Amino acid sequence: MSRLSGLSRLLAQLAPAESPILEDFLERLQALLAEGGLSETLPEAPEAQEAERAIRHALQLYDVVSVRKLVANYDPEQPSRILRGSVLKSLRSLGVAKRLEALGATEIQQAHLLRYQHNLQVSLTRLLGQEISSDWERSWLTGHLENQVAAAPDKARQFFEERYRELFSAPYWTYLTLKHRHYQGLLNDYLRSSANKDRLDALRAEFTHSENHTEFPEWINQLDFRELELFVRKARSLLAKQRDVLPVGADELSESFGGGASRKSGAALPDLSERFRQWLSQNQTGLQRLEKSFSSILECSAPYFFPQVSAYQPEKRDLLLQQLGSQPDESEELPGLLAEILSRSDEDALDSRRVEWRLVPEALAGEANLALLENHRERSRIHGFKLPWAVRHETEGSSITLPTGMGGLLHYGLACFGEPANTGSAVQAGILLRLLVQGMKIGGGSRVVHVGKLPYYAVPLETLGAFRGVLLSAMLVLVLRHQLEVPAAFQRLILRECRMGVAP
User: Fold this and answer.
1) Helices 194-208 and 170-190 sit at what angle, rounded to 10 degrees?
2) By three-state DSSP, how is residue 42 classified?
């Protein structure tokens, strides 16, 4: 991938400016060059390189096409779809910035990151006319934006202007720098597995179109921001595919899906009981079918996911655990297990909602499982999948069979159960597990989510026991694809309650 060698040449290619916003962009770029914020070529000092690469990435100073595309996205005269895309990107950036707070940054970088978040939140709040909420569905947001633009087009113009000015700000450059470091750390984590290293070496050769003898960590540090972002995206996809493929045969299954001791060094999963290894081997076909069917849900219209106080009653948590067939010691393990899954980056899952808690009781401050929740009552994700086997559901006087391959949605996460105002009972973290099936109401369930034009109906909590095998298998798939420890209590729950192909 070619690098920019001379910014003056790029300026000459962009001139004369054919739009007011491009003209302003060129003037600001000239000022950065004159002030020494940018140089014709990258400086030799690694620290200075990182700072300048952040600016180059912010302004997409890679080629003429990249610059023109960037500038066009901030033109307030663009159609409403550009605004919608910009708002969605800004909402994602706000979430990323919050996660970057955990990085070991300097005091100045932390201040810049907080400033960037503040500026972004102010812009979004002013445009949308209300406080930001992660509960918003895209369908609602689209309609709301259209109404706002029609009623107050000046707000849309102001939003574009504010986001455009942010491109030239130190807080935004710091945000990009910290995100770049996060990507570097992510790749270095991948390299801890020898199996991953072989795959990444092959990907590097394909990515650079040449054989590279530079040590991998050093090569990572040499990449500019765009190159690293592209490589991480490809690496995530490659490694996810490797995890998604469950080979035929018990020995090979042990290698890829945590079932045996023959895993390659550096990719070891924790110890599994012999009975559990045997269970994995015996049920590899069903697990393989289920994992391969997990799919990305990019957006859904989901009034079902709007906060309902009744969903957070302790009785609902207890009923879910009962439907899963878990014993007390197993129930205690499950919140921590879901917290581990949620803490892992998963681009194949839609973050369905983060329900605001508004007030975090002091009693919760020291509980590890609740740390992930922060100021949210619920943190959850959603995956699409297909039933890996037929499920029979019996009702009074009749029964229905859901066929193999029927579409479903798995909504999983962690929630606070109880009321902060109710001092008589402690607020506790517990698991959240919901199942929705395509085009069919189960047990009188009527709550519906639409993915595209397809309706998915929520299975009532009281009926989830019929789907126990599916739910537990799906949780196991999530645990193993993230190469997490499989707690002994969870192994016991799987062995006792997870029956594939039949209702418990």
Assistant:
1) 120
2) coil
